[in-house]
Amino acid sequence: MVHSIEALRAGAQVSAYLDDTYLEQVDTRVIAVGERDGMPWAAVEQCLFHPQGGGQPADRGWLDDTEIVPVRDRESGLVVAAAREGGSVLSLAEGQKVRVRIDLPTRTAHAALHTAGHLVEAVGRMQGWEMVGSNHFPGQARIEFQAPQADARLTDPEGREELTAALRAAVAAAVADDLPVFARCLADGRRVVHLDSLHAAPCGGTHVRSLGDLAEVVLPTLKVKKGRIRVSYTATHVSYAGTHVSYAAAHVSDTATHLSYAATNRSR
Q: Is 219 helix (H, G, I), strand (E, B) or coil?
């Protein structure tokens, strides 16, 4: 059950994670408390936590000293913070002041993968393809396309390598140009993320400041299966490139933990 529903209807929560990808800590207050599957949760006014959704994993974060998992609550629409399984139980009250903090290397790793996914989508569309699926999880990142018109290169190994080389070249050029990345909100409330004039798409994810923040963007040779063109990729953030491998290994368990929430948060 959700408490303080009046605050929720007033739109009291600020999605600070969308305003500044790099904001690491903020002092704020609890605006609502409730329970999920018998476990207490708390929602804060200045929310730094990105919940799993749109193919992006959830942030790692803390309320004061308690590590939490952020989840989009179906009833209220709020991003709520619940204690991690096996961790300390949250015991907070509405109006209580708290310090909110995220793991910034984790955040920027997610942002780099998500932004790189938009870039892969952009260069795929240059080939005339239409995106039909995406995943921005570490170790699983890929964009899937369909080709409206038949292309003989997709059925031939050399042709697929030729197409992949063209995608790689276009990605490298955009990163070298350090195109700015920014978001704008439309009149209907949708948030649209832009890679300068190269690409724009509705998105609720976190992103880097510019494409020059991307490092180690690698595209293996594309694959075609059941009519879908799968372009896998990896990417890191320039400031945290050295921690990418250890990060990915440490968060494999997080992928399984959050999958139960994926169906609720698939809109981009």
A: coil
Q: What confidence tens digit (pLDDT) does each residue in 132-185 have? A: 999 999 999 999 999 999 999 999 999 999 999 999 999 999 999 999 999 999
How far from 263 is each of 52, 71, 221, 251, 260, CA to CA, in Å?
Answer: 10, 12, 29, 20, 7
Classified as helix, coil or strand, 24 is: coil
Q: What is the pTM of this model?
A: 0.84
Report the distance separating Cα 235 and Cα 244, nearest Å: 9
**CA 128-131-132 angle, 5° bins:** 135
Q: How far is CA 117 from CA 108, 149, 198, 235, 262, in A?
A: 14, 23, 13, 9, 18
pLDDT in tens, 75-115: 888 999 998 876 666 788 999 999 999 999 999 999 999 99
**Pairing state between β 14-15 and 130-135:** unpaired
| Residue-wise burial string across 146-156, b where 16 or more C-beta atoms lie within 10 A, e elsewhere | ebeeebebbee
Report how far residue 163's alpha carbon sits from residue 221's, in angstroms, rounded to the nearest whole number: 8
Residue 162 CB neighbour total at 10 angstroms: 12
